[in-house]
Design brief:
408 residues; alpha/beta; Rossmann fold; single chain; Alpha-Beta Plaits; 31% helix
Length: 408
């Protein structure tokens, strides 16, 4: 397919050690200007690097702020090669007409499996016994060690990961409860709790799977921890700021909680190998892992395929399915026409202005697709090949235009 902008001049930057499969996928499609780097970039570094970048790929460490987006004048789309998108200022991206995609399902299995494994190790007090064995001490005892079967798993946030975790836990003989601020239909024999406090009081394993929002920041603090059973354990594979680590450390030190496993932290190093510290280091029966919930070979391949394909479909066809910023349109390919994308402020009269400008010049519209959200509108037009450049100039002249692009 011929594009209006040569593929070899479309600059793609992939950060944070995104799977090489994503780079290879774009290269196979003819996009040769692809750079892949292992670490995250600071705000100042991003401002400098993104001046000529059209497509950006990140994971969870890179923070895309308003300053970054203001400087990224050529940026068309951001691919978050992870579950969340809270590292991107979505409102500003929406105003700039920048599509933002992620992979909400691709690593759910990896995270759920890690939670099951951590639960077993905490309930069996493997951490203590492993440490003792490495120090030459033999602690073969059953006191304080429990099977997973028959225990109650409490899931905070019953979304994609929470539901899959619940199914896996039930298959191992656990009773599953959950709490979510949204109404969620239970899978299997899971049961909804009316409050977080109720869930905390009944759970032997309390596992967190919520995004980072003002509502969830410091969600697990002293009031919740004091409601938990002394024999219970806490697992956080969601976002670091959801748990107050000082309160958690106090609960563990005073015996009000049996153990904890943390995969995420309020402050995390930008690169592998950097120094790290937190309030619960060195405590008995605490497992700390470096944000590896979705870090399996299978998950990273799935994410690379999922987000890479979304970015490619947006580049090639204007498809925005899965976008958090541009209204979602699933578009059919079309022959013998040129496709133009027009992103504009969602105010009355824009579509009329577009159609009148084209009709005044006798430009035939072979296909037209429109979707809006509360802030912006997205129009895709398939026009006569002989008039596409003229049509593009006419669309750029519409006052409410945010961004327009001729695909082919």
């Amino acid at each position: 397919m011929l594009t209006s902008f040569p593929k070899e001049k479309i600059n793609i930057l992939l950060l944070e050690n995104i799977s090489a499969q994503a780079r290879d996928f774009f290269a196979d499609q003819g996009y040769l200007a692809v750079q892949r780097e292992t670490g995250a970039l600071s705000e100042e570094q991003l401002i400098e690097r993104l001046a000529e970048v059209h497509i950006l790929g990140i994971r969870s460490k890179t923070q895309i702020t308003k300053r970054v987006l203001d400087a990224a004048t050529r940026l068309q789309a951001i691919g978050c090669f992870c579950i969340g998108v809270n590292q991107v200022d979505l409102e500003v991206a929406k105003e700039r007409g920048i599509a933002v995609f992620n992979a909400p399902y691709s690593n759910t299995r990896s995270v759920a499996e890690l939670v099951i494994g951590l639960s077993i190790m905490l309930l069996r007090r493997v951490v203590d016994k492993n440490k003792a064995a490495h120090e030459g001490r033999w602690f073969k005892e059953s006191a304080g060690s429990y099977e997973l079967r028959g225990k109650t798993l409490g899931i905070v946030g019953y979304g994609n990961i929470g539901t899959q975790l619940g199914i896996m836990a039930e298959s191992m003989g656990m009773r599953v409860l959950y709490f979510d601020i949204a109404t969620r239909l239970p899978l299997g024999n899971a049961r909804s709790c009316s409050s977080l406090m109720e869930l905390a009081a009944e759970s032997d394993v309390l596992s967190l799977h919520v995004p980072e929002t003002p509502l969830t920041t410091q969600l697990i603090a002293e009031p919740v921890l004091t409601r938990m059973k002394p024999s219970a354990v806490l697992i956080n594979c969601s976002r670091g700021k959801v748990v107050n680590l000082e309160h958690l450390a106090k609960a563990l030190q005073t015996g009000k909680l049996s153990g904890a496993a943390l995969d995420v932290f309020p402050e995390e190093p930008e690169k592998s190998g950097q120094s790290f510290a937190c309030a619960v280091q060195g405590l008995s029966n605490v497992i700390l892992t470096p944000h590896i919930g979705g870090s399996t070979e299978e998950a990273q391949l799935n994410i690379a395929e999922d987000v890479g394909l979304k970015l490619f479909n947006f580049l090639e066809q204007g498809v925005t399915t899965g976008s958090h910023t541009i209204p979602e349109l699933s578009l059919p390919p079309i022959g013998n026409a040129h496709r133009i994308l027009h992103i504009h402020a969602n105010v009355p009269g824009v579509l009329t202005a577009i159609n009148s400008r084209l009709s005044e010049k006798g430009i035939n519209i072979l296909g037209q697709y429109l979707k809006t959200n509360e802030r912006i509108g997205y129009v895709v037009l398939d026009v006569d090949m002989n008039f596409s450049e003229q049509a593009l100039d006419l669309l750029k002249s519409v006052p409410e235009t945010i961004k327009t692009r001729l695909l082919y």
